[in-house]
Amino acid sequence: MSHSSFIIHRSSLREALESPFPLRGKGGDRGGAHKSALMLLCLALTGVAMPAAAQQYPVRPVRMIVPNAPGSTTDLLGRIVFTRMADPLGRQVVVDNRPGAGGTLGVEMGARATPDGYNLMAVAASQLTMAPHIYRKLPYDALKDFVPVGMYVLAQTALCVNGNLPARTVREFIDLAKVKPGSLNQSSAGVGSTSHLGTVMFATLAGIQSNHVPYKGGGPSVLAVTQGETQWSVPPLSAAMPHVKTGRIRCIATGGDKRSAVTPGLPTIAESGVPGFRFYGWNGVVAPRGSPLFRAGGKRGARSDGNAARPRYPLSW
């Protein structure tokens, strides 16, 4: 089966988690990703291995910690999936937003949560694969403190500017930034966040100087661009689109290796004069270490407490 096929058609959860191109449809975009993500996550959750004496899982609402602010991509797309998970699970999935420090505060809470299968956490690439390389010391171990459950989105990013900024192409934006180096401000969801590294990557490859202004979450960072507090950012495309319709933000290029099916008229940053720029974000669900291990391949009873063999797929999927 080709990598462009949706993940739900794969024969097992393990194969799904090991797929190098999860949740992509034809053309490299999400297409049916929400449906596939919902089915994948419910498969994982309903396959949770509980002690024989325990009641059928779940018997009460499931808490989903979101270490990002309301309005962020992790929150917005996550709520679509989590809301629909309620029907097949038979229980409500309660979203608990805990933003701050690029998401690391909420991730720490997730790592310390009771590992009973009722505490899960929605995470982004920045918190598990980027933060360990940015912060000298983190209050959690990305490789040891969590059990991977599944990925629910691979997010297209975009170069977005304030609607009043006189730049409608990548080249015009670069030229504008070079006229007065350091005169522009870029916003992000926090130090070490996906949008932070996206803006730094763009500035480096484009050869411009800009001031980084970190915010407490993706929603506030995008809102800062709409209000003119900052002039540009590289957020997930989905987080910017509602503001594009109002004219307060202008997306001038996308960050993927191919144009987005959602905005086919927008060129990629790479084809617009910044070769080598390719930047995505991803979001998934993990559980604290010690939680009943989510079934992969039909086995029950294995736990993630270090006494049993750990799954061979990586935490970063």
Shape type: elongated
The name of the CATH architecture of the largest domain is 3-Layer(aba) Sandwich
- Report helical residue fraction: 25-40%
Q: Total helix count?
A: 9
Task: Describe the protein in words.
- With 317 residues, this protein is an alpha/beta fold.
- It folds into two domains: 7-155 and 283-288, Bordetella uptake gene, domain 1 (D-Maltodextrin-Binding Protein, domain 2, 3-Layer(aba) Sandwich), CATH 3.40.190.150; 158-278, D-Maltodextrin-Binding Protein, domain 2 (3-Layer(aba) Sandwich).
- 30% of the residues lie in helices and 18% in strands.
- It has helices spanning 13-18, 33-46, 73-89, 104-112, 125-134, 170-179, 194-206, 218-226, 237-244; strands at residues 62-66, 93-97, 119-124, 146-156, 158-162, 185-188, 211-214, 232-233, 249-254, 280-288.
- The strands form three sheets. The chain has a five-stranded mixed sheet.
- α2 (33-46) packs across α3.
- The longest helix has 17 residues, at 73-89.
- It is elongated.
- The two termini are 19 Å apart.
